[in-house]
Amino acid sequence: MRSQVPDVVSSDSIVLPKFVFSAAVAAGADARTLVREARLPRWLFTIGEGRVSSHYAMRLWELAEWLLRDPGIAFAVGQGHQRGDLSLYDYLFSTSPTLVDGLAVQGEFLHLVTGNSRWAVLSETDGDVTYGYQHSVRARRGVELGAQFGLAVFCARVRQATGQPVVPVSVGFAQRPPRSYRVLAEAFGTRRVEFDQPVNTLTFGRADLGLPFRGADPVLAGILRRYAATLPPAEPATWYGYFTTLLDACLAETPTLEALATRLAMSPRSLQRHLAEHGTTWRAELDHARRRRAEKARAVATQRMSDLAPVLGYSDARAASRALRRLKIVQSDAPTYRG
After folding, report:
1. Residues near 173 by Cβ (< 8 Å), separated by ≥ 6?
2. Pick the CATH number of 239-326 from 2.70.70.10, 1.20.1740.10, 2.60.40.1840, 1.10.10.60
3. What is the mean pLDDT of residues 215-241?
4. Could you report the per-residue pLDDT of 236-295, keeping only the tens digit for each?
5. Between 3.40.50.1000, 3.40.50.720, 3.40.50.700, 3.90.1520.10, what CATH number should domain 11-230 receive?
């Protein structure tokens, strides 16, 4: 199964593809096939923050449907969503006072999960409110499955948060109708589902929008919203970023090229090739890591060289002192650290 769509398509939080992968494996998809066919880098599973190409989540949805022969997989995963699966985003929703507040915060902070989609009020009447869920990428099966998952998740979260069997007035999809409506009826609880719409939509009755949330916590909700609003744009998650993080973490172990290559599940030669592709070398990166660690330690005026040496991966204080002078962190005539 090969996709004909280019790989570069905006970005998602790394939480999203990891969640889709775990859900697909839990449903019975072969993990190795998913990794291979979606071209998932190994480091994607070992870092907790950052953003990656949206290609990964879309490709994983396509593979899950194909491997499991289940066109309703996205709806099923959405129905099984549990609070916390999508990290901070879930708690911003569940601590809101009422359903209408939760749906508003859902749109305000959707970028925490994906940069491809928008959730906002499309229209209002005296009796109901219609929300639109629009994706910036069109004509791809992974996008359609992602929309199915998204709308199913929204409904599942509403029922969990209110403790009530809330049923949307109607549901709209910007895709062709499936062969069977059974899964749709289970996911949304209504047969008022329309297809070939301009935008994916969920319509809720005004009476339901006022329902209080069981986990409502105004104080915590305010704290979470203020925190989320101050978060800087997440950095793209890359192999090089993972490498430097790993190198920093094991610096005190006097890391070697061979040891880091093993941690990265590659050969030393492959590691050297990857570094060369990033315009650097193993020696240069080791120096950079030691410089970063030493510069952080400079803020501690009483830091002894004998204490700093093992932290930087050196056997003794003299070796560390010579290296820091070479890196121009310590001047020979004005030492920053005490021996």
Report:
1. 144, 147, 148, 151, 193, 194, 195, 196, 197, 200
2. 1.10.10.60
3. 86
4. 777 787 788 778 877 767 788 998 888 777 888 988 988 888 888 998 888 888 777 776
5. 3.90.1520.10
